[in-house]
Design a protein that fits this description.
87% of the residues lie in helices and 0% in strands. The protein has six helices and no strands.
Length: 189
């Protein structure tokens, strides 16, 4: 009986201690989050130039377009190499989009949320294709053509970008896009 009362007492004290510890951590987290939000707002919250804002939106759009096409390829591609390429596009462009979204949020830029009209039309064509025809169409369009276009845009935008955060994004995107293009070109030979 005595053991039971002692055990209940220990459990009650532990529960109260855990509750206060959780509240303390929660209060610290909310305070530090608010502080870091305020710091990042003042440090990097300056309004972007129209060129820099366009560059951020272009990077987001390119990533959204690639992810959408790659998701179609994951379900429709016949070749395991094409499926592997598509999975890499989902992974890499998903990670890149997250980085773009973070900078856009800090800078107050509203980003697109779906593929543009040209890529919606391409998606419709991809949906109708199958087998080797699908694989070829996906690799030629999303693989080679889109990556060439994005690389050209990134390189020209990078020369004009003024904001250091946006410049860092463009600089980080460029080698990844170059690698994707190189892989796509090797697969379509």
């Amino acid at each position: 009986m005595q053991k039971s009362k002692t055990l209940k007492g220990l459990l009650a004290v532990s529960a109260v201690a855990a509750m206060f510890t959780t509240l303390g951590v929660q209060a610290q987290t909310q305070t530090s989050t608010a502080t870091s939000d305020a710091t990042s707002q003042t440090a990097s919250g300056a309004k972007l130039s129209s060129g820099d804002e366009k560059a951020v939106k272009d990077m987001a759009q390119a990533n959204i377009n690639e992810i959408a096409a790659a998701k179609i390829a994951l379900s429709k591609a016949q070749s395991s190499d094409v499926k592997a390429f598509a999975q890499k596009m989902v992974d890499d462009h998903g990670a890149a989009l997250t980085k773009v979204q973070t900078v856009a949020q800090q800078k107050g830029v509203t980003l697109p949320t779906e593929p543009d009209a040209e890529h919606k039309a391409m998606a419709a064509k991809l949906e109708k294709a199958s087998g080797d025809d699908f694989d070829k169409m996906y690799m030629e369009n999303a693989g080679t053509k889109d990556h060439k276009m994005v690389l050209t845009k990134l390189q020209s935008d990078a020369k004009m970008i003024k904001d250091p955060d946006v410049k860092a994004l463009a600089d980080a995107h460029t080698p990844v896009v170059e690698q994707h293009l190189k892989s796509a070109e090797q697969m379509t030979k």
